[in-house]
UniProtKB/TrEMBL annotation:
Any GO molecular function: mRNA binding
Lineage: superkingdom: Eukaryota
GO cellular component, one term: thylakoid membrane
Family matches, as PANTHER family: ACCLIMATION OF PHOTOSYNTHESIS TO ENVIRONMENT (PTHR35551:SF1), PTHR35551
Taxonomy of the source species: Eukaryota, Viridiplantae, Streptophyta, Embryophyta, Tracheophyta
Keywords recorded for this protein, A-Z: Membrane, Transmembrane, Transmembrane helix
Listed name of the protein: Thylakoid membrane protein slr0575
Keyword Acetylation: no
Transmembrane segments: 100-124, 130-151
Organism: Eutrema salsugineum
Length: 292
C-alpha cells in the first residue's frame, strides 16, 4: 500500500508538475506568440499590438511634425501666387545728391572747423598757424548749416512695387515723374510738400476753401499698378481737420492740376485721418508704342 501510495503520490506530484510545466509553457508560447505578432508586418494585428507601446508624447510629436510639413507645403505653394503678381517692394536706395541734407553737411563741417580752430588757437591742438583760417570759414559754414537745417523739409517715403517700376518709364506722365522726384528729396524754405498744388486745390483762406491750419500733410507716396494694368501714383495725406467729402468735392481739381492724361480718385486710408489721392495715368504701353 505504501508503494502504491508512494506511486500515487508520485503520480500526483508528476501530474501537478506537468500542469505547472504546461502553464509555464503556455505562457511562454503566448508570450513568444505576442512577440512574433508584434514583430510581424501583418497590417490587421500591427496597430492593435504596437500602439499599446507608443507613448502619448511620441504620438503628439508625430502629429505636430505632420502639421508642420503640411503648413510648409502650403506656404511654398502660395509663394508663387504672390510672386506672379510682382507685388514685391523695391527699396528706394538709389544714391543722389537730392537725398543728402546740406544742412547736416554744412553744420557738421562748420562745427568741426570751429572746434579745431579754437583748439589750435589755444595751442591744445597742432596747427596754430591755420587757426585763423579755420575760424574764419568755420563760423559762416556753421551759420549756413543751422539755417538750412531749420528750413529743411525732409523727403517722404516712397513705396514702389516691382510691377509699377517696370511701367514707370513708359506709362508715367512727366508731371507724375516730377511729383515723385520733388517729394522724395530734401527741400528748403517750403512749409510742406506740394505746397503750391494744395494751396490752389483747397484755396486756403478763400471763399469755399479751408483754413490753412487744416491743410493736409503729405506723409508718403506709393507706386502701384491697378487691376486694369494702369500705372498709379498714390498720394497719402494726413488731415485731422478734414473729412472725406472735402477731398471728394475737389477730385476734379486734382485731375486738372496734375493733368493731362491723369484721372484722380479719392478714397479713405487704412487708419483714421488718412486719405489717399490716386493719380492714375491714362498713358498705356500700346499708345506709347503707336506714337513712337
Amino acid at each position: 500500500m505504501g508503494s502504491i501510495s508512494a506511486a500515487s503520490g508520485t503520480t500526483v506530484l508528476s501530474s501537478s508538475l506537468r500542469r505547472h510545466s504546461n502553464r509555464r509553457l503556455g505562457l511562454y508560447d503566448r508570450r513568444h506568440e505576442n512577440l512574433s505578432v508584434v514583430s510581424s508586418s501583418q497590417p490587421p494585428l500591427m496597430p492593435r499590438q504596437r500602439w499599446l507601446y507608443v507613448p502619448e508624447t511620441r504620438l503628439k510629436q508625430e502629429i505636430l511634425r505632420m502639421d508642420f510639413i503640411a503648413g510648409a507645403a502650403d506656404s511654398t505653394s502660395s509663394s508663387p501666387s504672390v510672386a506672379s503678381g510682382d507685388k514685391t517692394l523695391i527699396p528706394d536706395d538709389e544714391f543722389t545728391l537730392a537725398k543728402i541734407s546740406f544742412g547736416v553737411i554744412g553744420l557738421g563741417l562748420g562745427v568741426s572747423l570751429l572746434s579745431y580752430g579754437f583748439g589750435a588757437y589755444f595751442n591744445i591742438l597742432p596747427g596754430s598757424e591755420w587757426s585763423a583760417i579755420m575760424l574764419t570759414y568755420g563760423f559762416p559754414l556753421a551759420i549756413i548749416g543751422m539755417a538750412l537745417k531749420y528750413a529743411e523739409l525732409k523727403p517722404v517715403p516712397c513705396l514702389s512695387y516691382s510691377d509699377a517700376v517696370k511701367l514707370r518709364e513708359s506709362c508715367a506722365t512727366p508731371i507724375l515723374t516730377q511729383v515723385r522726384n520733388d517729394v522724395t528729396r530734401y527741400r528748403y524754405g517750403d512749409e510742406q510738400h506740394l505746397e503750391e498744388a494744395l494751396k490752389r486745390i483747397f484755396q486756403y483762406g478763400l471763399g469755399g476753401g479751408i483754413p490753412r491750419r487744416s491743410a493736409p500733410i503729405l506723409t508718403m507716396i506709393r507706386e502701384e499698378v491697378l487691376t486694369d494694368g494702369r500705372y498709379c501714383l498714390v498720394l497719402v495725406f494726413e488731415a485731422k481737420g478734414l473729412q472725406l467729402s472735402d477731398f471728394e468735392k475737389r477730385q476734379a481739381k486734382f485731375t486738372s492740376f496734375f493733368g493731362p492724361n491723369i484721372t484722380a480718385e479719392v478714397g479713405k486710408g487704412e487708419s483714421e485721418n488718412i486719405y489717399e489721392v490716386r493719380l492714375i495715368s491714362n498713358v498705356s504701353t500700346n499708345s506709347v508704342s503707336s506714337t513712337s
